[in-house]
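check this one:
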Amino acid sequence: MSKVRASRGGTVLCAIEVAREEISAYGVFDVEPVPDGDYTDDPNVLKVRGMVEKPKAETAPSRYAAAGRYVLDRAIFDALRRIDRGAGGEVQLTDAIALLIAEGHPVHVVVHQGSRHDLGNPGGYLKAAVDFALDRDDYGPDLRRWLVARLGLTEQ
């Protein structure tokens, strides 16, 4: 993301590709290929035309959802001061980013291709804790044996 920021300027956001049936749980990007310069041939770097908060699957502009990672241009602070309060009476970062887009500031996404954990819900948090614990030398072997026994599996 920092390399895209250094090359393209503006704001750079991280996106993940989400299954169509899960898209309504996310803020979704309306994107297009980078029109010129660096990254025109990189399918994981896209120019943002807009954002839609939790759209229905049939109206979602893409399957690229906000992953909560940002490299923000300093112009975001002025934009945050100029927007109206949104949902819950709070100042919404997505509204400020939308204002930057509307005013012609460059905003791009980098599509993350690795693994990730959704810590925004208890089930995702538990999966992350187990995943990270299994990778540790001090917890992993005992946890793996316990899980195998608990689930009635045979260890391989």
About this structure: The mean pLDDT is 92.
